[in-house]
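To fix ideas, we reproduce below a protein record of this kind.
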Amino acid sequence: MTPKIAVVIPCYRVSSHVLDVIANIGMEVSAIFAVDDCCPEGSGDLITRHCNDARVVVVRNAQNMGVGGAVLAGYSAAIEAGADVIVKVDGDGQMDPRLIPVFIAPIVAGEADYTKGNRFYDLEGIRTMPNVRLFGNAALSFMTKLSSGYWDIFDPTNGYTAIHADVARHLPFEKISRRYFFETDMLFRLNTLRAVVVDVPMDAHYGNEVSNMKMSTIVGEFFFKHIRNFIKRIFYNYYLRDMSLASIELPLGLLLVSSGGIFGAYHWFSSMQEGVVTPAGTVMLAALPILLGTQLILAFLGYDIANVPRRPLHKSRNI
């Protein structure tokens, strides 16, 4: 049976691009949900007046919910309409709708539950990416690997995504971040479900569109949210859901590193105050737990990297 594909387009200050985005969506898509996120430009009214595509349904948020809130409203509408796979495409023209078949292919084939774009596959192509975005994405990608547990993905803020509707149905919509942290928080939530996530190579298009996200202001905010999600993920996966040798390696490693560091710092400060050389035995007592603890932490990371979900959720559980 041919899967029913739906596209969700969050609309906020994209009136100059959204009609072209809709016009370029291929016939493999059976429904398009344009979500007017209380847009000051009246995106919903614009689409209603000028778009004759019968597949298009305008969903209106009573108040601005941010990109995450707009996407989740579109997910809900698509699920209610009976979609099998839901693709999210931004309305600013940066994402090529012709790539939709590429994004849905791993999901339809039962190889993934969620696919997302990655603009870093083509090393020549990333030269077109602004330097601030390039640096910010690299930093955020590393933090996302730690917090989400998906060590084999990159470009976490990429909003070109596709998800199996049965997996989307099991996400805690009320807990997912509504603003710019939405894409990375989605990855954390998907990991708690043990969903399979696959990167899809793509090019980015940067024209005269204006991004509402500023890397300089969100890196700090994202940092603390990543720490929160990392702690939650470790607790869920290594203590609540399951326990393994890695469940012992991490706390023991952290204890040894911190105790060795505190012991060494105390004796180093005392030696500086008294003007004497720290005995070699004292140095070894500080260094040994640090070295051993570091090895345990690295062993935990090795286990965590190997523990990336590999079995598609919607296929293996028939949810």
Remarks:
- The two ends are 17 Å apart (CA to CA).
